[in-house]
Amino acid sequence: MTEEKYKALVELFLGRDDWAMPINNASLIDWNGEKWISGTNGHSVLLLPEGMVGGVSEVDKYPKVVNVLPEIPEMREFPRITGDALSEALKGFKKEKVFSTKPCEECDGKGEFWYGSHTYDCKECDGSGKINDKYLWSEYNSYEQVCIGTSYFSVVETGRLESVAKALGDAELVANSFVGDDGKTRGSLFRVGVGYVLMMPCTPSTVQEQPIVRLI
Ligand SMILES: [Zn+2]
């Protein structure tokens, strides 16, 4: 794996919305006595050992990733899921292309035009002010759920775990979703090769049309 490939994995986990600026960049955090590169969108976290991706600074403003990471329990064997098993579980779900965006040139990124005392949505960007720029990758666009251990995760987040498992090795369920000392639900922690993925569970859906896929 090249540094570029590790960087692409981290970017997969970063927020891309304007409002989420503090989590649109990777940061360096202290965890378990070591430094880790952390990438998160607020729903899941990817941790890679320090130095695997350059140019990452020690900012952990929001969210405080360290606060939601569990201690690694002392166990020799953890339940294991291969990247292929994750792909098999996700094969019924569709992927869509993800692009980086740039300000719309028609409306100068405003998304609307003034005419007299009215505003009109820009047709070029559908009122968003942004247009697609560069193709980044394809990812699942379904919010159906997959069950791993005793917790339910969105297909989108499970797809991120799949990408990491394909790149770094089998995913081991190190800590099942648990409730912290503060009473808040923490995520499930997976060790994947040299890295870790923490995924926040969702409330099991009672209305989803497709059956829940169960893994381990
Ligand atoms: Zn526009």
Word description of this protein:
- This protein has 216 residues and is of the alpha+beta class.
- The protein folds into two domains: 3-91 and 142-215, Proliferating Cell Nuclear Antigen, CATH 3.70.10; 100-134, no CATH class.
- It is built from four helices and 14 strands.
- The protein has helices at 3-13, 65-68, 83-90, 155-168, and strands at residues 27-31, 34-40, 44-49, 80-81, 95-103, 112-115, 118-121, 130-140, 145-148, 151-154, 171-175, 188-192, 195-199, 213-215.
- Strands 1-2-3-13-12-11-4 form a seven-stranded antiparallel beta sheet.
- The chain is globular and about 70 Å long.
- The mean pLDDT is 85.
- The structure holds zinc ion (ZN).
- Residues 104, 106-107, 111, 122, 124-125, 129 line the site of zinc ion.
Secondary structure: elements and pairs:
Elements: H1 3-13, E1 27-31, E2 34-40, E3 44-49, H2 65-68, E4 80-81, H3 83-90, E5 95-103, E6 112-115, E7 118-121, E8 130-140, E9 145-148, E10 151-154, H4 155-168, E11 171-175, E12 188-192, E13 195-199, E14 213-215
The structure holds zinc ion.
Search tags:
three-stranded mixed sheet, binds zinc ion, 14 strands, alpha+beta, 4 helices, seven-stranded antiparallel sheet, 2 domains
Mean pLDDT value: 85
Helical residues, percent = 10-25%
> What is the beta-strand fraction?
25-35%
What is the count of DSSP helices, taking H or I runs of 4+ residues? 4
Record the strand order, biggest sheet: 1-2-3-13-12-11-4
- Please give the domain count: 2
Main beta-sheet annotation: 7 strands, antiparallel
CATH C-level name of the largest domain: Alpha Beta
What name is given to the CATH topology of the largest domain? Answer: Proliferating Cell Nuclear Antigen
- The CATH architecture designation of the largest domain is Box
First and last CA, distance:
28 Å
Rg, please? 19 Å
Q: Which ligands appear in the coordinates?
A: zinc ion
Order of helices and strands: HEEEHEHEEEEEEHEEEE
Strand segment tally: 14
Find the structural class using helix and strand composition. Answer: alpha+beta
Low-confidence stretches: none
Q: Overall 3D geometry? A: globular
